[in-house]
Design a protein that fits this description.
The protein is mainly alpha-helical. The protein contains 15 helices and no strands.
């Protein structure tokens, strides 16, 4: 569904920069290994190197370092978290959940564990328990991260609980203030639910806070079309064209603005064809 594409704002991709980061792990592992030679009984150093090995996908070395850290009396919650992340990376979802369930029995306020369990429960197809974890994760933090609200809404939407997803996003916006990923997700859900007035109000509110409104005019017109309001849609598309044409040449001639102008023209033409049909 359209609004889930917003997840691209939150995700990273494998690229040249990722390769550079991969190379950087070698140097970090070498540095920590030297520190371990100097402090062979340091549990935190084994935990650190174990996590670096995990990120480097050196699974056996990661397991070995976690076991060594555990034997040196490393904090159980740290070992559990890193072990669960390792299992999650390996896609051993059941094993990750077993570690997380056990750890959360003793550390119910550990947000990292609960967030990871929510994600693993989702992967395992345990939607309602995952939503419960997200609810607790959010409720027990004074300022939860926006991603927690977004992931909860995404899961609820996938489960067909769209109104619950929208309510959760509104709760996030009420607590955190304006967060664009949450606003756009809420807007997409309002469109899916046919809440045209609410969607238009949100667009007008967001557009009022930016000096560049041409894209918002396109979005507003598209919603008017869906709502069966062709005259209002035509007015919005015309406003969008005027906004583009009034831009300074260096902005108006960019590929993005040329594409946007064509989208507005195509939208106008589609309305005319519909009226003629």
């Amino acid at each position: 569904m359209a609004w889930l594409a917003i997840g691209l704002l939150l995700a990273s991709s494998w690229s040249g920069s990722a390769l550079s980061a991969h190379d950087g792990l070698h140097a970090k592992i070498a540095k920590v290994s030297q520190q371990i030679r100097e402090e062979p009984s340091s549990a935190p150093l084994y935990l650190l190197r174990g996590d670096l090995h995990r990120r480097h996908k050196a699974w056996a070395l990661a397991v070995s370092d976690l076991q060594r850290a555990e034997s040196l009396q490393a904090p159980g919650v740290e070992v559990a978290y890193l072990r669960a992340r390792l299992y999650a990376d390996l896609k051993w979802t059941a094993a990750a959940l077993e570690v997380l369930d056990r750890a959360l029995e003793f550390h119910p306020e550990e947000h990292r564990l609960r967030w990871l369990r929510a994600r693993q429960r989702k992967i395992a197809g345990k939607g309602l328990p995952a939503l419960q974890d997200y609810d607790l994760l959010i409720a027990r933090q004074a300022s939860p991260p926006p991603d927690a609200f977004w992931e909860r809404a995404q899961l609820a939407s996938e489960m067909g609980l769209k109104q619950r997803a929208l309510s959760g996003l509104e709760a996030g916006l009420a607590r955190l203030g304006e967060v664009i990923t949450l606003e756009l997700s809420a807007l997409a859900l309002e469109e899916e639910l046919g809440l045209w007035d609410a969607a238009l109000q949100r667009i007008r509110r967001l557009a009022a806070k930016t000096p560049r409104k041409e894209r918002w005019w396109l979005r507003q017109g598209q919603i008017h079309v869906q709502a069966g309001q062709p005259e209002a849609a035509r007015e919005a598309f015309e406003n969008g064209l005027q906004a583009v044409d009034q831009l300074p040449p260096k902005y108006r001639r960019t590929p993005a603005m040329i594409r946007l102008r064509q989208e507005l023209l195509d939208a106008q033409e589609s309305l005319t064809e519909s009226a003629g049909g």
